[in-house]
Specification:
Layout lengths: L1 E3 L5 H12 L11 H12 L4 E8 L2 E13 L4 E11 L8 H12 L4 E6 L6 H9 L17
Parallel strand pairs: 4-5
Antiparallel strand pairs: 1-2, 2-3, 3-4
Keywords: Acyltransferase, Transferase
GO molecular function: acyltransferase activity, transferring groups other than amino-acyl groups
Organism: Candidatus Mediterraneibacter caccavium
Length: about 150
């Protein structure tokens, strides 16, 4: 089951986000205070960020984090699927596919693109995304962090 994050989920989400950022799925860890910032933004409004929790057998199995933006190139709103994390014992149970189906149903007509990034060597995730219709977008992403 997929559901929206609530204040009561704060500790569980922060714990799972820490697990995710200390895994091979990311290039580098991030400061723990970033998790709290994400929680505050998601609780403040769903305009820019939303957190979704995945449940399986009455247990919290993982989460998805989306960010929202507008893109002229896409001709409308874009939902970035920022993070998908499923705890090890819940993997290969269809939760990832269920989350994508949930987003498709929730997005509405104004959202013209769902976008994500994935580590190239995460072949299981890449395979799932391709089966769901995602294609490689040949851009080099660049960043300039202003928080350091």
């Amino acid at each position: 089951m997929i559901r929206r994050f609530t204040e009561n989920d704060r500790e569980t989400y922060i714990e799972m986000a820490g697990e995710f950022y200390h895994s091979d799925a990311v290039l580098h860890p991030i400061p723990d205070e970033y998790f709290a910032r994400t929680v505050e933004e998601a609780l403040r409004s769903d305009s820019y960020a939303e957190i979704f929790l995945f449940e399986c057998g009455g247990e919290t199995a993982g989460y998805g984090l989306t960010a929202k933006t507008f893109s002229q190139e896409a001709g409308g709103y874009v939902w970035w699927i920022e993070e998908i994390y499923i705890r090890e014992k819940f993997r290969s149970r269809g939760l990832g596919r269920e989350f994508f189906r949930y987003l498709e149903e929730e997005k509405g007509r104004d959202v013209t693109r769902l976008r994500l990034e994935v580590e190239a060597d995460n072949t299981r995730a890449v395979s799932l995304y391709e089966r769901l219709g995602y294609e490689v977008l040949d851009y080099v992403q660049m960043v300039k962090d202003e928080t350091k």
